[in-house]
Amino acid sequence: MRRGEEFNSAVRKGGRSGRPTLVAHLGMRAPDLRAGEPPLVGFVVSRAVGGAVVRNRVKRRLRHLMRDRLDRLPRGSLLVVRANPPAASARSERLAAELDVALDRLLRRRESSTTRMEG
Enzyme class, one word (predicted)? Predict the structure, then answer.
């Protein structure tokens, strides 16, 4: 994900799940705007996490962890993963576990809301 509108859409209109090391926001593209396209993922790592080297390391680690989890996201979804300051010193196992918990919560909420809308 590269466009600011996509980040804003996911953060403002999507669901949110927070963990100590990261916060995940899951939104959907508008139905008429490429809804059948593959999911897009963006990362936000602020200066509060650390200097440029630390921020880039955190982004690389999160990007690597997301590669294995992309197939869990629905088509047309927008996911923003925002790193919190503890992500700088967290081990990869902890980041992976917290990312899994955040994704599980977001996907479960999305399933229950679409089921209610259909039923």
Answer: hydrolase
Query: Is 41 a residue whose pLDDT tops 70?
Result: yes
From the list 22, 14, 41, 46, the residue with the least C-alpha distance to 96 is 22
* Domain CATH code at residue 8: 3.30.230.10
Count of the separate structural domains present in the chain:
1
Position 24: which residue type? Answer: A
Are 46 and 58 spatial neighbours (Cβ–Cβ below 8 Å)?
A: no
Residue 31 burial (10 A CB sphere; 0-12, 13-18, 19+): exposed
- pTM for the model: 0.86
The answer to whether residue 90 is domain-embedded is: yes
